[in-house]
Amino acid sequence: MKSNELRDLSIEELQKKLVDFKDELFSLRFQMVTGQLGNPMRIREVKRNIARVKTILREIEMLKK
Q1: For residue 47, what are the contacts with CB-CB under 8 A and spacing of at least 6?
Q2: What share of the chain is helix, strand, coil (3-state, %, to 5)?
Q3: Average pLDDT over residues 14-33
Q4: How far apart are CA 47 and CA 65, in angstroms?
Q5: Which residue in 33, 35, 39, 50 has the most C-beta neighbors within 10 A?
Q6: What's the whole-model pTM score?
Q7: Rounded mean pLDDT of the chain?
Q8: Domains (range + CATH), the chain
């Protein structure tokens, strides 16, 4: 997901996206351990999405101070 798309979301939507990405990462890691993961690069992509969401949430927090 692009950072421009994430910046258009509200704080609640960003927090929901963060939870969704974390759940997906857990699922992908579980698939990797069991040998069922089809695309291992998806883990990297999800980690980066988590970082993007956290960065944007932090930026919003800093702007409010």
Answers
A1: 25
A2: 80, 0, 20
A3: 97
A4: 28
A5: 50
A6: 0.92
A7: 95
A8: 3-64 (1.10.287.310)
Task: Tokens for 23, please give them.
Answer: 């759940």
- In angstroms and rounded to an integer, the radius of gyration of the C-alpha atoms of the chain is 14
**Both tokens assigned to 32:** 């990797």
Question: Which residues touch 56 (CB under 8 Å, ≥6 apart)?
Answer: 3, 6, 7, 14
Would residue 35 be called left, alpha or beta, if left means φ above 0 and alpha means ψ between -120 and 50 degrees? left
Residue matched to tokens 């988590």: 50
Residue type, 22: K
Amino acid at position 54, single letter:
K
